[in-house]
Every structure is written in C-alpha cells, then in structure tokens.
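Repro:
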Amino acid sequence: MADQAATLLDAMPDLAGRSVLVVGCGDGRYPRLFREKGARRVVGVEADQTLIAAAQREEERDPVGISYEVHQLSRLPVMGTFDIVLAFLDSPDHLGRLAASLAMGGLLVAVATNGLTLEEGLRDNGFQDIVLHRHESGDVHSARKVS
C-alpha cells in the first residue's frame, strides 16, 4: 500500500481543508491517510459490507471523523459535493456517477485496474487536464472536472 499511497498522494493537491470521497475505500486505509494529511471531510464508500464494517470498527476505536457508506458503484447516488473523488475502477462506465459528486473544477483521481485505459472516457465525461501516473497495481489518472 505504501508505494500506491505515494502515487495517489502525488496525483493529488495538498489535502488540507479539502473534502474527499473515496469510492472503493476497502477497510478505510486511504480515508484515514487523507484525514491524516489534512482533509477536512472524508467519506468512504465500499460495496463490501465486511470491509465497511472493518473500517467502521477502526473509526470507533480511533475516531478521526470519517463516515462510511455501503454502495455499489453501479448505483452510487450523489454523495454530496467533494473537492476530490478517488475511485478504483475496472471500467469507464461509471465516470459520470463519480463526476456527479465532484465540485466544478474538482479533481477525480482514478486507479485503473486490469489494464484499463480511461483517457477517452474521462474526456467524454467532461474532464480535462488528464495526467497519467504509472503504478504496478493500476495506472492512476487524475483529471479536472470542467463540465
């Protein structure tokens, strides 16, 4: 995780005072890291109830102000308005759902798993300033929402 965490942090601006939505948050490691780095509001979303339960137990044991919700990406509701959305994707199909929770000018950071290429899908969904950061566990794309 440490190596991927460094890649993710490199793809993001300074987190101090920002709101971050983490889609595919697993057991909550990244949401906790982002709070540690100064994010003012962090929400974690995961489809797996067992992983969310682990994240919630850690939040109860050591509260840092993260909220967690169970949602399938294919049915992800608008989660509010966030400065940054981090998502782990195996398809470009849900980029629009992610964009719906992102503030205008906000940053989407997407980890593309399974060799996925996201550039075309990002452009088609109103993102610009697309930057690719290579990582062995999945390329990390960052892109700014402009429409």
